[in-house]
Amino acid sequence: MRVRLALLAFLLFLAPRHSHAIEQDKMKHFSLSYAISTTGLFALPKDLKWLSPVFTLALGAAKELTDDHFDGNDMLANGAGIGTSIVVLELE
Asked: Which of 22, 23, 25, 44 has a 20 to 30 A CA-CA distance from 72?
């Protein structure tokens, strides 16, 4: 069930919102943020689970700040991946 929900969330994220599809870069941001956040949520003890989304978001922000320009849409994709991770694991 969790896998189906994660796949559904990912596909909804990829659905075109405009006349063009989501850039591959945004898919990478979403996927990596989902994977990093999920790994932390599984690995950390219950009282430290809050660190996983915070660390993942900070990592994404650090990456954006070191790029030539800050892309808010990349950060939205990071947030969507983190949020999907939290929702899927809460439905467990």
From this structure: 44
Give, as one character, the DSSP assignment of residue 49.
T
Report the predicted TM-score, pTM, of the whole model to 2 decimal places: 0.76
Distance CA 77, CA 79 (A): 5
C-alpha–C-alpha distance, residues 17 and 35, integer Å: 24
Taking CA atoms, 37 is separated from 20, 21, 34, 40, in Å, by 28, 25, 5, 5
In Å, what is the CA distance from 54 to each residue of 60, 71, 76, 80?
Answer: 10, 19, 14, 13
